[in-house]
Amino acid sequence: MSAQTFDVIVIGGGPVGEVAAERAARGGLQVALVEHERFGGECSYWACIPSKALLRPGNLLAAAKRVPGVPVGDAVDPAAVFARRDWFTGKGDDTGQVKWAEGVGIVPIRGHGRITGERKVTVDGGDELTARHAVIVATGSVPRTPSIPGLDTISPWGSREATSAEAVPRRLGVLGGGVVGVEMAQAFATLGAEVHLIISGARPLPRLPEFAGDAVIAGLREAGVTVHTGSGLDSVSAVDGGKELALKGGDRLVVDELLVATGRRPATDGLGVETLGLEAGAPLTTDDNGRVSAVDGDWLFAVGDVTGRAPLTHQGKYAARAAGDSVAAQAAGKPVDSAAWSAHSATADHHAIPQVVFTDPEVASVGLAGPEEGKPHRVVDIDIAVAGSSLHADRYAGKARLVVDTERDVLVGATFVGQDVAELLHSATIAIVGEVPLPRLWHAVPSFPTISEVWLRLLEAYGL
C-alpha cells in the first residue's frame, strides 16, 4: 500500500478521460489518470475505431458498384478487413497511449479506481490517492442487458465481441435497432454472414426522422440483412448447431452468434459513489462546467457517457475540455465561467449534438430531428438531387431536412441521409452553434459540383 497526492485524479483512461487530464495538466496541475483496462478506452479498442474499420470496406465496395467503369469484385476479404482493424486497434496494445500520457505530464496508474471519501480514490492493491483540487470521473458506459429467458445461458455477443471478432459467423442474430445494431448488422452482412436484425418498431433508429430509418432498412436489405420488424425475443436457448431464438410472434431462428445491442448505461457500478450518497448505476448529473450537482465542495466532476448527457465520444471530449479547464481555473483561483458558450461550459450538449450512423447509406444529424410542440419551428424536407450527387453515384438516393426556428430565422436541426453525407454535417453544426441567420447562409456559396449544393436547394425550399 502506498499513499500519493495529486492536484487532480481522473478515473477512466479513455479518450474523454485523456482529454480532461490533458486540459488540467495544461493548466499546470499534477494529474493522475487511473484506468483498469486499456488506456485509450472503449472507443479505441472496442467501439468507434474498430466498428468503422469493419464498415468501411463494405461501404466502399457498394459505392464503387454505383460508378460504371470501376473494376470491382463481388465481396470483401474478411481476413484483410480484420487485419486492417487490428492495425488501427493495435490488437489491444495500449503502450502508445501510456507513452502519450507520460509525454504530456500525466501520471498513468493502472487499476480500478474507487471513490472512498472526499477527494479520496483507492486503487486496486490498496494504493490511496488524494486530490488537492478535484476528482474527475470519466468511466464511460456499459451495455444494458435485457431480461430475456435463457440469455445468460448462451454467452451472447455484446458490442465488444462483435468489433473484436476474429472470424465471421455463418449466421448472426442482432437484437436492437440502434446505431450499434444497424452498423454491425451491415458490417457482418458485407463480410459474408447471414444476418437477422430483430427490432421492436417498424424501422430502426427511431429517434431520427422516419425517412432516415426507412433508408437504412432499405440499405440493410440490399446488403442481404433480413430485418424482423415489430418483433423481439421471447426466449433464447442453446441447441445443437447454434442458438435458437424464439421471436415474438412465434417465428424461430437458429444462429451461430447473437449480438445484443439494446443500449448502454452509465458505468458507475463499483465506483464508490454510494459513499457520497449517490446511486450506483445511475448517471452522475452535472452542470455545464462538469461539476456533479449533488456533491458539495466543488471537487467532484464527471464527463462523458457516465453523465448520461450525450453518449458520444466527441461530445464527451468536448465536455472534458470544459471540465478540465474549469478545474484548472478553479485551482488557480481564477473565475470559472458558467455562461453559455464560454470556454468552461459544455453548452452544445443542449443544442447541437452531431452524430453519424456509418451505414450505407449514411445518416448524419445534429440538433433537433423534428419540430418541438409549441415552438415556432418549421421543417423543410427535400431529396438530395443536385449535380454533385448525380456525379457522385448513379441513381444517388438521399434526403435532407432542416428544422428552422422561424422567430429567429436560424437552424435548430439538420438531418442528411445518403451516400457520403457525413461530411455535410459540420457545416450544419456550425450554422446551429453560430446561430447563423438563414439569409446569411445564402452567401455561403457551395462549390460546384458537390453534394453540398443541397444547401442551396434547402434554402430555396424554405423560400429564400
TrEMBL record:
GO biological process, one term: 2-oxoglutarate metabolic process
Stretches assigned to the FAD/NAD(P)-binding domain: 6-315
Keywords associated with the record: FAD, Flavoprotein, NAD, Nucleotide-binding
Cofactor note: Binds 1 FAD per subunit.
Keyword Manganese: no
Sequence positions that bind NAD(+): 176-183, 263, 305
GO molecular function: dihydrolipoyl dehydrogenase (NADH) activity; flavin adenine dinucleotide binding
Family per similarity comment: Belongs to the class-I pyridine nucleotide-disulfide oxidoreductase family.
Protein name from the UniProt record: Dihydrolipoyl dehydrogenase
Source organism (scientific name): Amycolatopsis japonica
